[in-house]
Amino acid sequence: MNEILKEISQIGIVPVVAIEDAKKAVPLARALVAGGLPTAEITFRTAAAEDAMRAITAEVPEMLVGAGTVLTPDQLDRALDAGSKFIVSPGFNPEMVKYGLSKGALMLPGTATGGEMEQAMALGLEVVKFFPAEQNGGIAKIKALAGPYKKLRWMPTGGVTTKNMMDYLSFDQIVACGGTWMVKADLIEGERWDEITAICREAVKTMLGLQIMHVGVNCADAEEAERTAKTFAGLFGFPYKAGNSSDFAGTVVECMKKPGRGLHGHIGIGANSVERAMYHLGRQGVEFDETSVKTNAKGQVTNVYLKDEVAGFAIHVMRK
Predict the structure, then answer these.
(1) Rounded distance, CA 142 to CA 146, Å?
(2) Does 185 share its domain with 217?
(3) Are residues 171 and 215 in the same domain?
(4) How far is CA 166 from the centre of its chain?
(5) Which of these is catalytic: 85, 129, 257, 275?
(6) Secondary structure, 3-state, 85-115
(7) Taking the model in full, what pTM does it have?
(8) Are residues 182 and 253 in the same domain?
(9) Does one domain contain both 178 and 44?
(10) Out of 65, 68, 94, 107, which could bridge 100 as a Cys pair, Cβ 3.0 to 4.6 Å?
């Protein structure tokens, strides 16, 4: 996958911004970064778009800036000159796609029908926008289209919110969701940066879905593992289950038949997407043991350990 597309996928949510005052672009970008969403699609719906892109590119270099509502070659040229790393349009214009590709631009044209998607694939595109998503049938329509278009991926935009975005993001062929709900005009106009940051953080929290899945207790041998698991099962009414390398009390307490990772054991943290969890935790300074990465047949990361232990426990993030 293209490196920019890979970063968009790791971020998971692309704020779609219509900004009237370019002077507010930098504080807006900083609010988005603070909220865990270091990207934005700045739309050409306003006259301030180009200046906003230039300001963000210059002053918030960690921000991945894209241009939206790009309808003409002139807008595309201005967007690229202003530092845009990807180009988004509301509809599919094959001539505009060809022009953008000739400029080396990453093109994400809007599509809603199989015919538009086939034309996009014929031009070599691997990801397209699905717009307006909810009004065009939402995730149900995308899944229906995914049958014949197994190699195509989508970025649904339009009607997506924190409440329904996981309907989309839980499907493998969704690269990310675009949305305006965290950058509404009144929030930008009122310079309510803390509120924008809070909405972004809530969206990221929902997207990652991090939760404790199990605690692994290191035991000296199989006998101690059995005894410990049965103790927990008896105390709390959990079902006991024997396994090859560990015994379980319920689904949360795992008793290892010999010491494994961690001084005392390990803690499994579930995530909707391990790749996105690694990206967002990495932005907080968390480091991972790359040698511990495990993947499934689709190439998706299913498990990875953090480099450092916490209170004597190794921590691993696992795909739910």
Answers:
(1) 6
(2) no
(3) no
(4) 10
(5) 129
(6) CEEECCCCCHHHHHHHHHCCCCEECEECCHH
(7) 0.96
(8) no
(9) yes
(10) 107
